[in-house]
Design a protein that fits this description.
Layout: E1 2-9, H1 12-18, E2 23-33, E3 38-47, H2 52-60, E4 65-74, E5 77-84, H3 88-95, E6 100-107, E7 112-119, H4 123-133, E8 138-145, H5 154-165, H6 177-184, H7 188-210
Antiparallel strand pairs: 1-7, 1-8, 2-3, 2-6, 3-5, 4-5, 6-7
Helix pairs in contact: 5-7, 6-7
Length: about 210
């Protein structure tokens, strides 16, 4: 696997929301909607000042957004899914058919989107070619080989990383198992089982390394 970090212009609905000020948009994962040429973005959106209801209303009015399914998890924070017709990086991720999973992508101060991808060596040129074909300009920050954590499958890594990023392991928890499952688009029982197995592997590896 290869770790690829890059920045690029945000999709229109992300840029519109970000430019209102004090809003951070994280894209946890993406998937295509069959035969409809739409992209479903699983997101975590937080504002320093904007109420959650205003975040939702702004998204409803955004050009290219066809559907939203968002839950309020605080006065200024929502998580869930945003479906849009935009292309860009997310369309390339879905259509390039590469062995890829995405770490949470986030907006920066200039409303550029910073992506961190984990992609197979064979998949990297296909992904870059797709971006070039679609006219998507990116600024590469880092390309480096990555060894998968011992004992963790790509799916376990994705769910475990998302749980950590979204505050599942914070005290108090910022997100429940059910909310995490909704964000990832999988059943809560499946999330719980994936986390249990991943946690077991991480703990086992820790004591294997830490034992003299």
């Amino acid at each position: 696997m290869i770790r690829l970090e890059f920045s690029t212009s945000s999709e229109s609905w992300v840029e519109k929301l970000c430019e209102l000020g004090g809003v951070t948009i994280k894209v946890i994962s993406v998937k295509g909607e069959d035969q409809l040429n739409k992209i479903i973005h699983f997101v975590d959106i937080h504002s320093e000042i904007m109420p959650a209801e205003d975040i939702i209303n702004n998204l409803k009015e955004s050009k290219g957004v066809t559907d939203i399914d968002l839950a309020r998890v605080g006065a200024n924070r929502v998580i869930g899914s945003v479906t849009s017709l935009d292309g860009g990086v997310c369309r390339a991720l879905v259509d390039s058919n590469t062995n890829t999973f995405i770490a949470p992508a986030s907006t920066d101060r200039d409303c550029q989107m910073i992506y961190k991808l984990f992609i197979s060596g064979n998949g990297l040129p296909l992904f870059l070619q797709r971006l070039h074909k679609d006219g998507v300009v990116i600024k590469i920050g880092e390309v480096s080989p990555l060894s998968s954590p011992k004992g963790l499958t790509p799916r376990q890594q994705k769910v475990l990383r998302s749980a950590l990023e979204l505050g599942y392991y914070d005290f108090p928890k910022r997100i429940s198992t059910q909310q995490l499952a909704s964000t990832l688009g999988i059943k809560s029982g499946t999330v719980a089982e994936i986390l249990r197995r991943a946690e077991k592997n991480v703990i086992s590896n820790y004591f294997e390394v830490a034992t003299p």
